[in-house]
Amino acid sequence: MFPSAEDRLTAHLRASLGAWPPPPDALLVTTSRARTTPGWDGRTRAFAGLRTPHGAVLSVHPSIVDEVAALGTTLEGVQPDLEKLLGGPLFDVMHRWSGDPAPLEPLGEWVPYDDPVVPEWLHPFGGDVLVHLEDDRYIGGVGLKRHDEHAWELSVGTEEAARGKGIARRLVVTAARRVLDEGRVPTYLHDLRNTASARVAEASGFPDRGWRYLVTGP
The domain containing residue 196 runs over which residues? Predict the structure, then answer.
């Protein structure tokens, strides 16, 4: 029997950030192997952070852990000097996860990422991708960011003419069920200004828990 979705998420965050959960109403500065090794797409990310209404964890390159920890005890107090250390501003990204996708009808089929029907934007995900076709023409799809054995992140896209028909949410639910069935927790990240993506997430069973992922760059 698989661990609960929450336990899988905790294992993922401990691996990717270095520690989880944060101390109550406090800031924890730490590091992890993920700060010095390539991620799902081959890129190395020297910083990652996650804040919740109850505390925050900042995961930084091991060379600056002590320096960042000495900056302060709150994210607000640390952020200005941390941004100087990192060489740019930090941005909030909505972080969602689900252990109970919405009861929507499944949609799409899983095909290799290099199948001729798969659009270019899905190629970097590798492995199998979920696509919905109409008359053998691509309409929408989901790629999986295979972060680790505990969590895979969903990225969904639909053709502009097909939006507003519930396709994206059904694709997300279908992909989320597969991730859960295989023993991982599905996560869903999006820009705070992306209201369309927020609606898809909510309708798919990925609620806003007030979690914000912290990233560098726009």
Answer: 109-207
For the chain, how many structural domains are there in total? 2
Say yes or no: 26 and 56 in one domain: yes
Residue type, 132: H
124, 69: one domain = no
In a domain, 26, yes or no: yes
User: What DSSP assignment string belongs to 151-215?
Assistant: EEEEEEEE-GGGTTSSHHHHHHHHHHHHHHHTT-EEEEEEETT-HHHHHHHHHHT----S-EEEE
Q: CB–CB of 39/147 below 8 Å?
A: yes
* Final residue of a structural domain among 37, 63, 97: 97
Based on the fold, state whether residues 18 and 89 are members of the same structural domain: yes
Per-residue pLDDT of the chain (218 residues; tens, 9 = 90+): 678 999 999 999 999 999 999 999 999 999 999 999 999 999 999 999 999 999 999 999 999 999 999 999 999 999 999 999 999 999 999 999 999 999 999 999 999 999 999 999 999 999 999 999 999 999 999 999 999 999 999 999 999 988 999 999 999 999 999 999 999 999 999 999 999 999 999 999 999 999 999 999 75
- Tell if the pTM clears 0.85, that is, is over it: yes
